[in-house]
Amino acid sequence: MTMSMALTRLYLDKATLIWNGNVVTGLDALANFFEMLPSSEFQVNMLDCQPVHGKIRVFQEQATPSQTTVLVVTSGIVKFDGNKQHYFNQNFLLSAHSTLNNTVWKIASDCFRFQDWASS
Amino acid sequence: MTHDIEMGSNLRNCMAASLHIHEENMPKMKSEGELDKVKGLEPEEMCEDRNPLCTNLPDKSTNIKEDHEAPLPIIFGIEAYKKLPVCKVRSHQVNSLQRRARCWGIFQRRYVSWSETFSPGIHPSSRREQDGDVAMRDAHVGPGVRYTPYAIPTYWRRDSFHRGDQTHGNPERERKPPEEGLEGNRQDGTSRSWFKVTFPFGIKYDEKWLLNLIQSQCSVPFNPIEFHYEKMQVQFFGENASIAFVLKKVSGKIWDEENERISIFVSPSAVPHSEQKKLKSTKVKLIKKTNIKGYEVPQRALDLQRLHSDPDPMTLDIEMGPNLRNCMAASLHIHEENMCKVKSEGELDNVKGLQPEERCSDRNPLCTTFPDKSTNIRSILELFPKLLHLDDHKIPPPIIFGNEAYKKLPVCKGNVFGSETLKNIILQFLQQYYWIYDSGDWQGLLDAYHDEACFSLTILFNPDDLVPSCLHKYSKGSRNMRKLKDPVLRVQLLKHTKRDIVDFLNVLPKTQHDLSSFVVDMCVQTEKMLCFSVNGVFKEGECLLCIVNDQLFVRDAGPIETQGAFSTPVPTLSSSSVPTISQEQQEVAQAFSTQSGMNH
């Protein structure tokens, strides 16, 4: 299994990634997107998180119980192969999904942007 | 833009705002160590600078309902693997947040460069690695890279960029001591060629049977080091690049007696413990020079034959060019008898530590252990993918095809609103919010927040740094959990309820936001909730700060909340319109002006 496949599995089926203004929705599109990205090294310098009010139901079409949601924001430096390094900001909405035995968190929304995206 | 700022009744309240402030003029990110530019990641590119690709896929709307329940224990990662760390969420997220930081640190792109499958540090949850979710956990592997056979593995290129990360005490990196790990070797340029081979389900194979199987695949003698069973796996080490090469190739293409595929993981490794004592550590540092005793050593070429065929002791000043730097995976076998004296800055006399695996029959001591030349060259190119000359022969550029084709970053684009309607709503909201925010009318902001709203602020430099004094006021309230470990402070700095939020905002310096600099990414849109990020610039006094990152959640206000909200008329920003107001309105405006201190 490739790493892009593993990364994709962290997302909900209908999760959306907004990557420097590019909108990528759904696991297939996400897998393709990650596969096409050059390899990278990330350094996370900032991390903050907040609970999102109560539970919200994210990307559920059927009448399922709503999910606990957490907002996570990060910032730091990333270097993609063949490109100069960038400061980046990235925000996640994580949604909890409970089974009988445990609870798993998955990404409902992912928003990534270079701080200097305009000159990239 | 000039929009009348009248907040629609369906867009008041509840925001979980997370402000992130960076200093605009901060040229470098300072960590506890010194973080310079990313060294080592400057390979000699065979191809031109990349032109971005473009992807554009539509997003989808969702339905959201709110509910209120106690938070549940968190298991980060994917379902099946039971060994994942458990992060527990409580109302005061203390240790769980710290552990979550550990978990998030994992969430970085890591690819194993030597194999198309995971390194042994990451364990698949089931035998069928292709199916099911994959567990991510703290792995001892370094930040590997995507499998790109024609690129230098970046874990060989660890540098100050990474040292900065390491000195943060980044727990998920779990760096090994230099004598065990690879860092010291990389920085020294020492050549290390050990590999670790893992059979993930090797427990079911007899040792002799397995070794015979491996030997049958290899044309050269195979000598496993520290062969052992570990849980479900078989692990051993090897020093022969050709063996590693072969094993990597045959992974998944050989079958056991039950007709099941055998997977093999191959990854670079530190020197095994049993070998460390035998191996002499050596630093071979080659310094750049074009003429070396009559030799002309092109920057991109490493003439292995010439290096050691010269019977005279010579001083080699060959800098490993960017394409050869950190190619520590090279398997250089130097015949001891023919070893020349190589001098480096460290005044080393001999190339030590590069123990030959076997004697070469010919006089050329530098060779891989493949029997034929073409395989020999191919294996060298696998290890030195950017080599352009080998033994005075020009090598054609590598052919890149398939999924590992030339990868380019997508084009960076502007705002993402989702629709024109949402764009108008969001822009109006932002205009109004920041107008109130910049005016210092903190009472006005109260109406913008939900009763139970959350707010937090982070700033990315230390108070001791030489920064404008205005920024120190932000650092007091900074809730960067990468650095802030005090659990009490972590709770205190997460502002809760609109009263607390506005009181906190009140102590921050007066600002002026530049709406024209704003970039909006609308992440989630439902019938009752909007989630969007805002990046932009604001000014505080004489300080020009950069990049405000606001993450706002806006939810529909209930009828009770809407009553009485925004009873004070908000002036429009439209400079072209001159509204006519009644006498009564004039008096109200005058009173407002007096109270707020504004002149108009």
Automatic annotation (TrEMBL), chain A:
GO BP term (any one): protein transport
Record Gene3D superfamilies: 3.10.450.50
GO cellular component: cytoplasm; nucleus
Annotated protein name in UniProt: Nuclear transport factor 2
InterPro entries per UniProt: NTF2 (IPR045875), NTF2-like_dom_sf (IPR032710), NTF2_dom (IPR002075), Nuclear_transport_factor_2_euk (IPR018222)
Localization, UniProt: Cytoplasm; Nucleus
Source species taxonomy: Eukaryota, Metazoa, Chordata, Craniata, Vertebrata
Function: Has a role in nuclear-cytoplasmic transport of proteins and mRNAs.
SUPFAM superfamilies: NTF2-like (SSF54427)
All copies of domain NTF2, residue ranges: 1-114
Organism, as annotated: Trichechus manatus latirostris (Florida manatee)
PROSITE patterns named in the record: NTF2_DOMAIN
Name of encoding gene: NXT2
Tagged with keyword Cytoplasm: yes
Any one Pfam family match given in the protein's UniProt record, by short name: NTF2
Alphabetical keyword list: Cytoplasm, Nucleus, Protein transport, Transport
Automatic annotation (TrEMBL), chain B:
PROSITE patterns assigned: NTF2_DOMAIN (PS50177)
Any one Gene Ontology BP term: poly(A)+ mRNA export from nucleus
Biased amino acid composition, Basic and acidic residues: 161-186
Subcellular location: Cytoplasm; Nucleus
GO CC entries: cytoplasm; nucleus
Keywords from the UniProt entry: Cytoplasm, mRNA transport, Nucleus, Transport
Transport is among the record's keywords: yes
Domain NTF2 span(s) in chain numbering: 425-555
One of the record's GO molecular function terms: RNA binding
SUPFAM superfamilies named in the record: NTF2-like, RNA-binding domain, RBD
Gene3D superfamilies, per the entry: 3.10.450.50, 3.30.70.330, Ribonuclease Inhibitor
Region (Disordered): 161-189
Domain of life: Eukaryota
Main subcellular localisation: cytoplasm
A Pfam short name: LRR_NXF1-5
Family under the similarity heading: Belongs to the NXF family.
Protein name per Swiss-Prot or TrEMBL: Nuclear RNA export factor 3
Organism: Trichechus manatus latirostris (Florida manatee)
Biological classification of the source: Eukaryota, Metazoa, Chordata, Craniata, Vertebrata
